[in-house]
Specification:
The complex is a heterodimer. Chain A has 9 helices and no strands. By secondary structure, chain A is mainly alpha-helical. Chain B has 2 domains: about 45 residues, no CATH class; about 210 residues, no CATH class. The chains are: A mainly alpha, B alpha+beta.
Chain lengths: ~160, ~325
């Protein structure tokens, strides 16, 4: 991958990678840091990485960074507070469907959340998602199905919300 | 298509995921439109699909210039390396500058083995406010001791001969270093030199306009100046306005010094004191204390000094007894 291709990857993927990171860890500064680290690693290993595989490399790196941060957050019991937030939102009916989905998304496990994000936002195939998440196609499909099902349960009766 | 009805959830999931063929998708769509249960399931599932949203990355300009960023890091490394190199060069320069000046001395004589770089300013002798380089320059001008001058002085003729023998010359016959023994030892060193040291230490490096200490006839008096001490070593050669160039301390008894000389030219060991290096401000040790340390510590009972003249000849002093 040369300089021009790297620039193209930056232009094409920076926003998507930032969104993926932000949706995963919910902390803006850490999401920025993940994007920065991912692109830095891409630049360091640019000689070994094909242009076609660059996007997958970025998301794989970002996903692993997210996992690290999420585990760290879990150790700090930060997730307990996050989990309590959606229930409050549901009770107060003051947030929209988008915010509700975001909160519901945060309650999924990392694998389900990342799979759904990559599928819906990036439009990746099961195979591509499997490459990033280190799963096979069937496993990816199952994870997405279970994740969406869980989202339904968290959100509850859509008609009530809408 | 009946198998699709078995699990509505899974079927609608596959439908929304886009995994069905066109025929299957058309069938599911018909079911959703016609069947309320399918319709509710479809609505429920549809909510779980995230709608695309654009979240711009704020620092994209930093990512777009990786070369500059890494170049900056590289520049930092180069800057650190260059700074380190400059610092080392600076220290090395100071060191070599001293060595070069010492080499000037060593090139003019053959006693290159054991030099004691000292820097004696005029203040050491109480002669005024000249720096060391001025001292070196003025030594030749003010000392004005030449062979012709010395030869015209019959009293110094024997000493001149010894001095010539001390000095390195092109004539190999003159390279021998005879131990000069003289019957009379000046009284100047009959006293403990520490008394002189204490007296000389009292000289301030900033005493540029310090008046000369009062002269005494007997240099062993506590208030004797180094001028008087040296005058006792070189009677008739040191004038008040003279500047000491180099002094060689030479063993007159053949006693070995504790430090080894690589290739002593004779049994008489030599120590060089380069007055151009001794700075009272930096090393508040007067020249006499240096001499004393070198000789006393080495248990050298007697030494002989040699004064270097303008034409690189040497005037030996009388033997100086340090066996106190």
């Amino acid at each position: 991958m040369n300089q021009e291709e790297y620039q193209q990857i930056v232009n094409d993927c920076a926003d998507a990678l930032y969104r993926f990171s932000l949706k995963n860890i919910k902390v803006i500064e850490e999401a920025k840091e993940i994007v920065q680290n991912s692109f830095e690693k891409l630049w360091i290993h640019r000689e070994k990485i094909d242009f076609q595989r660059a996007k997958s490399f970025l998301f794989t790196t970002a996903y692993r960074n997210c996992i690290d941060i999420i585990r760290k957050q879990k150790n700090e019991s930060a997730l307990d507070m996050i989990k309590s937030e959606p229930q409050q939102h549901l009770n107060t009916h003051v947030i929209g469907l988008k915010a509700l989905l975001d909160n519901a998304l945060s309650q999924l496990n990392e694998l389900q959340r990342s799979a759904i994000l990559l599928r819906d936002y990036e439009g990746y195939s099961y195979l591509e998602i499997g490459d990033i998440l280190d799963l096979n196609e069937s496993q990816v499909k199952i994870q997405i199905f279970r994740g969406r099902k869980k989202l339904q349960n968290i959100i509850g009766n859509v008609e009530d919300i809408l | 298509m009946k198998h699709l009805d078995k699990d509505i959830d899974w079927t609608i999931f596959e439908f929304l995921e886009g995994n069905l063929s066109s025929e299957e998708a058309q069938y599911v769509q018909e079911q959703i439109d016609s069947n309320e249960e399918w319709n509710k399931a479809h609505t429920r599932w549809k909510v779980s699909f995230l709608e695309s949203e654009h979240i711009p990355y704020p620092n994209i300009s930093e990512l777009a210039q990786p070369k500059a960023r890494f170049k900056f890091t590289r520049n930092i490394q180069w800057f650190a390396a260059a700074s380190l190199l400059i610092a080392i060069s600076w220290f090395w320069g100071i060191h070599t500058q001293k060595i070069d000046s010492s080499d000037r001395v060593s090139k003019s004589n053959s006693f290159q083995k054991h030099k004691v770089p000292l820097h004696v300013t005029h203040d050491d002798y109480g002669f005024g406010s000249h720096n060391s380089s001025d001292t070196t320059r003025q030594v030749a001008a003010t000392l004005n001791l030449t062979h012709s001058h010395l030869k015209s002085n019959p009293r110094r003729a024997p000493q001149m001969a010894s001095a010539t023998a001390l000095m390195p010359t092109s004539n190999p016959k003159k390279r021998a270093l005879p131990v000069i023994r003289r019957p009379s030892i000046p009284n100047a060193l009959a006293v403990h030199p520490s008394a002189n040291v204490a007296r000389l230490d009292s000289f301030s490096p900033t005493s540029a306009v310090r008046p000369l200490p009062p002269k005494t006839k007997n240099p062993s008096m506590p208030n004797a100046s180094i001028f008087e001490l040296l005058s006792s070593f070189f009677p008739g050669e040191i004038r008040e306005e003279a500047r000491l160039s180099w002094v060689v301390i030479q063993s007159s008894s053949g006693t070995e010094l504790p430090y080894t000389l690589a290739a002593p030219r004779s049994s008489a060991e030599s120590i060089y004191i380069d007055t151009g290096y001794f700075q009272l401000a930096e090393t508040p040790v007067p020249i006499w204390q240096q001499i004393w340390q070198r000789t006393k510590k080495g248990q050298l009972p007697a030494v002989q000094l040699a004064l270097k003249t303008q034409d690189n000849s040497w005037i030996p002093s009388m033997n100086v007894n340090l066996s106190y």
